[in-house]
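tokens incoming
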């Protein structure tokens, strides 16, 4: 290493005497805050309303009448290993979830037993806008930083769509979209539906999406999940009479199903013949 013998001997001797080779703490200027004031700072930092050093200083002055500046509070917190951090935002999809979806898509791609060509996959989705600003930060240690879901606004759209190898159907916005109320009355409560009911589902998906599917293939099939509006006697009878190739649900009424990852309607029909 190119070190002189005396240099190595001095540090070995120091390690034997002290048990470590770090610099000893220097006296320096004594801290202004007492041990009690430091404890008050740490306790105030844990309060939900104290998110900044100025908030902590004001709270200490109010509670125990100890005058500390914002910079003094900042130095105390940093000496205790704390940082001003925002909670970690949980991603919409984790790396494992993304890998599972990619693996499912690759396994089903160009598979001979899969009837991709004649199947119309239908489902609905809520699209919510996400806040651009980050969550408010606070003083904490990296280990106690915490995790929060991505903040959402109240504005959302609820849309229906069907897709197959020939393309996608027209996107239809339904009840649940921002400032869009249902036009159909619930016969049980005698009030407007708060979500998509059987009448709206029949008007949007059965009458409109099915017309586009019929233009793509003659003997086409329908896939849908087990949502209550889909399984009413009226809709099931209409689907049975107007879907040439038959229909199937996510739990499998016809043939076998290949379940995809997640809760979305990613199941596909596997031909039994």
């Amino acid at each position: 290493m190119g070190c002189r013998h005396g240099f190595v001997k001095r540090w070995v001797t120091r390690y034997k005497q002290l048990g470590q080779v770090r610099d000893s703490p220097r006296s320096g200027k004594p801290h202004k805050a007492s041990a009690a004031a430091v404890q008050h700072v740490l306790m105030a930092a844990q309060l939900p309303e104290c998110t900044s050093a100025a908030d902590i200083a004001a709270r200490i002055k109010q509670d125990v009448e100890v005058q500390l500046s914002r910079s003094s509070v900042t130095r105390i917190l940093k000496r205790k290993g704390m940082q001003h951090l925002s909670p970690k935002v949980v991603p919409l999809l984790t790396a494992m979830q993304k890998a599972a979806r990619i693996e499912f898509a690759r396994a089903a791609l160009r598979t001979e037993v899969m009837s991709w060509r004649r199947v119309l996959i239908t489902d609905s989705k809520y699209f919510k806008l996400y806040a651009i600003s980050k969550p408010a930060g606070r003083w904490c240690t990296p280990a106690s930083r915490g995790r929060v879901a991505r903040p959402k606004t109240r504005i959302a759209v609820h849309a229906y769509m069907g897709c197959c190898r020939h393309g996608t159907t027209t996107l239809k916005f339904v009840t649940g979209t921002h400032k869009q109320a249902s036009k159909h009355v619930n016969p049980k409560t005698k009030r407007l539906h708060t979500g998509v009911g059987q009448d709206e589902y029949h008007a949007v998906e059965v009458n409109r999406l099915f017309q586009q599917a019929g233009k793509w293939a003659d003997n086409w099939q329908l896939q849908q999940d087990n949502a209550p509006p889909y399984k009413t006697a009226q809709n099931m009878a209409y689907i049975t009479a107007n879907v040439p190739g038959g229909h199937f649900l996510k739990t499998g009424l016809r043939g076998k199903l290949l379940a995809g990852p997640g809760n979305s309607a990613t199941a596909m029909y596997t031909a039994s013949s």
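note: The chain is about 35% helix and 20% strand.
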